Amino acid sequence: MDMMPAPVPKNLLTIPSFQEIPFLVHGFGDSHWTEDDIGLVDGWGRFQTVILKQVHSDIVHVVDASVTNRGTKLRGDGLITSAPFLFLAIKTADCLPVLMADPSNRVVAAVHCGWRSTSKIILDRAVRLMQSRFGTEPTSLLAAFGPCIGPACYEVGEDVRAEFSREKFPRGFFQPHPEKPGKYWLDLREANRGLLLRLGVKPANIHSVDACTHCDRRFFSFRRDREKSGRMLSFIGLTD
Question: pTM score, two decimals?
Fold first, then answer.
């Protein structure tokens, strides 16, 4: 008999293909979902949540259960684990949260992809770490993109475009602003999708919640609300 996916808690968005993996738990929270809500979900009481001190870097940590006993947050923007009952968490408010799973080797990752981390090819670093430490094959890797600011709302300057020119990114995710010389629209999803495709991830294995945080009031947006904005929680973890 096929296993039915678990019910999705309120205020949490999930990816159907991830839901079908029986030992995988994940979610992209909206503005009403908090870390405290995790403990209220039936069956999630054994999980410990690992939250980074995010610094818009290319730093990715491989962690196990001992990380929850250290008392301080790790500094960086990516987490990888093969240990059960750890929720790897990312906080965002316009940046792109990326969750990845290697079902064959039972390894998961959560990565914070703002423009700075994206320009530093943090997803490239995360996938290569999964390869070297756990034997992950990119062709079998699953990736999920959460809500982020959309390309029609993410205006950036020449300085941002120059940062991306340092790496050999696929073309097409910058578009000139039609009314502002020297300004561009940046598509975070396409930039990171291009990185994954370049690494060998199959197009059909890259999934996305195609919601713009700037336009959709269900989500926090720093560009829209500035200092009044909160942060959304995205997470992924393994059972035993």
Answer: 0.94
